[in-house]
Amino acid sequence: MLFCSLPDYVFFENSSSNPYLIRRIEELNKTASGNVEAKVVCFYRRRDISHSLIQLADKHASNVCVCEEKESPLEAELTDKQKHQLRHRELFLSRQYESLPATHIRGKCSVALLNETEAVLSYLDKEDTFFYSLVYDPTQKTLLADKGEIRVGPRFQADVPDMLQEGESDEWDQSKLEEKLWDPDCPLSSKQIDQFLVVARAVGTFARALDCSSSVRQPSLHTSAAAASRDITLFHAMDTLHRHGYDLSSALSVLVPSGGPVLCRDEMEEWSASEAAMFEEALEKYGKDFNDIRQDFLPWKSLTSIIEYYYMWKTTDRYVQQKRLKAAEAESKLKQVYIPTYNKPNPNQISVTNGKMATVNGAGPGAYHAAGGGRACESCYSMQSAQWYSWGPPNMQCRLCVSCWMYWKKYGGLKMPSRPRSRGHGPRQSSHMVPVRNSGSPKSSTKTKQAFLLQATRLTKLARHMCRDIIRLRRAARRPFVAPSIPNFCLMTHTHARTHTHTHTAPLLHLDTPLFTPPRCLRPPPPPPPPCLSLSLFLLYCIILLLLFWFLYSPRFQ
To answer: How far is CA 193 from the centre of its chain?
Structure first.
């Protein structure tokens, strides 16, 4: 039984052969069918992102350590095995959410932001412990640093001047730097000011009664009076009183000019009901990201207007009601869940019956888990294990022992660093680049290929040098799939003739024995005897000429 709560880091299994997914639980929701789904934040391993981003992450780690004049955590005084395993502990946070069934949880783990002051061996000494320092965006394929930055310098901090002595002035004209909006030492009393503000509210209520659009939005007198009592009306009244030297009569004449009473509206009145509903929907989706709210929902509103409306909306009863509903919904949501122990056999598990292995890697039915019972573990090269698991492509017939299989599922890699492909020791030998599948079966299960051997004769070797103008080796090499057009018999005859010529004229090689003795079938024919024309041959020749003329000039054949 596994107990999970918010916000735990857990292992999720989405495939029987792939490593576990590492996620952080944000919510636990119960579906209509009664099952529990977890809304989780995704973490990615090094094997899940591209090689170019991996190089960028390593470069970022080295640059940070150079700036801080310290050695990189991944390049510290560690062995090759420790460096190899440390890279399996590195994760990349993302802002991506997904929902997964809670029954796929296989265990809990720990993920923390990389602490550069902590020894890197602390991550290797703890089981199921991971770290991250960068944020990965799977849609944009980018990496960003996930830590704050202390902005120090003249670009971010003010230069504080020296403190003035007592009675010393700074020679700044305050009238040019500031503008007075209200004088607390005005000649009016507090009662007179309050009475003037009551008159300003009454003028605002009357102005809303005369305005058609306002009467539609606030049909009742109470709603109009409440809108007239908002801060925008009071600020306008106090500003008018200050601009007219706190003269009540002149300030009242400005509030009610000849054209009608002045109507002051804020963002709460300017927005329609449909715009308010769209704002609440956008706020539910994006939170307080006002740029995205303006871009996707309210492009006709300015950013200032949206922010002002947000802080006014927080003072309304609707916000209070939504806050209470969210609190009640959060209270009713699941905060913890019990996951039953997963006991189903893994499909990659190599079956074992009564202490005997089934036919795996070409082994016979009587092969045990002994040193000669099959291939060694691809990670630790062990030959004995309580259980074996198939790993990698099926045609490779690789397998892992129990401990290396659990390491592969949790950390997404092999426990031992991979060696060069010189695995010619033990049962890992191969024949013609085909892996050996068995060493315990009486029958050979090596899947061999048909071997061939090109054995050139001495005549062929000599022809490469004697007949270069005919063979054209470079041209033939550029066309490996086109057979040479020179018959072998002609080539060998030509080579043999040239060999005789060079031997009688200008010998190139001085040897006691000949280079080769060509077979009878490949020897050139003997030279023809000198021509000797007899009478019968002469007559035959004449007959042939007559027949030829007859065929050529006979009208029957024209």
So the answer is: 65
Sequential DSSP letters for 147-168: S-----STTTS--PPPPPPTT-
Residue 475: the pLDDT is: 75
Angle between helices 231-243 and 248-255 (to 10 degrees): 130
Task: Note whether 6 and 140 are same-domain residues.
Answer: yes
State whether residue 38 is helix, strand or coil. strand
Nearest to 405 by CA among 359, 346, 458, 452: 346
- Residue 93 CA to residue 104 CA, distance in Å, equals 21
**242 occurs within a structural domain:** yes
Residue 185 is assigned to a structural domain of this protein: no
**Side chain identity at residue 140, one-letter code:** Q
- Contact by Cβ (8 Å): 49, 96: no
DSSP state of 397: T
Task: Give the pLDDT confidence score for residue 144 in this predicted structure.
Answer: 87
Secondary structure element (H or E) that encloses residue 392, with its range:
none
Same domain, 25 and 101: yes
Query: Left, alpha or beta for 57 (phi > 0: left; psi -120 to 50: alpha)?
Result: alpha
| CA–CA separation, 25 and 111 (whole Å) | 12
Asked whether residue 21 falls in the same domain as residue 117, the answer is yes
**How far apart are the C-alpha atoms of 203 and 252, rounded to whole Å?**
10
Low-confidence spans in the chain with pLDDT less than 50: 73-74, 353-372, 420-447, 503-523
Q: What is the DSSP letter of 322?
A: H
Length, in residues, of the chain: 558
Strands 129-137 and 90-101 turn out to be parallel
User: CA 446, CA 142: separation in Å to the nearest integer?
Assistant: 47
Please state the pTM of the whole predicted model: 0.52
In DSSP notation, 50-118 reads: -HHHHHHHHHHHHHHHHHTTS--GGGSS--HHHHHHHHHTEEEEEEEEEEEEGGGEEEEEEEEE--TTS
What pLDDT does 151 receive?
76
47 Cβ neighbours under 8 A, 6+ residues apart: 19, 412, 413
* CATH code of the domain in which 110 resides: 2.30.30.490
| Residue spans of alpha helices (H) in 181-313 | 190-210, 212-217, 221-228, 231-243, 248-255, 267-270, 273-286, 290-296, 303-313
Instruction: List the structure tokens of 184.
Output: 């607390």
Half-sphere exposure of 82 (CA within 13 A, CB side): 14
- Are 400 and 518 in a shared domain? no
